Amino acid sequence: MADLTPDPSGEPDLESLAQQAAAGDREALEQLLAAIQPRVQRICGRMLLYPEDAEEAAQDALMLVATKIGGFAGRSKFTTWLHAVTSNSARSTYRTLKRRSAERTTDELPVNADPRTTSVIAGSRLDLLDALEVVGSTHPDLVEALVLRDVQELEYSDIAELLDIPLGTVKSRIHQARQVVRPLLRVTD
To answer: What 8-state DSSP symbol labels residue 48?
Structure first.
């Protein structure tokens, strides 16, 4: 049975709930999902600016948490693991939206739309997400560290713990990723 005792801030203890949910406690899982929903929505909203896209990604992320919680071993903090799962879900939603957009005929698109600055797939930060896709295809080991640091704003130590790599490697990957991404980003005046 789930220990639903809040921590001193009045919030449920996510770490305890995650451990209980990972062990198969359904009540803990339900409580955990309810507690993390606003956080998941905020994380997705940082990457997918259009609310409907962020909501879709958030729902997918919550479903992933529910189905993958058994694999959460507690090597890192639950919230760090959650950021990684949610970031990956948002990027996956972006890829799906981009694919759907490409399948539409050009007649459906606004005549003066610049696809680099005007989102035809519902307001996403196209330049950053496209750059992450390019980097992911050539340097997949760099993308996750960059997203966790620059988009999700996790601490370097949390990223090292989550990815199970040394702190110096995290900093190096983020530095390399920034160098690769920088020329791919569109600079607006």
So the answer is: -
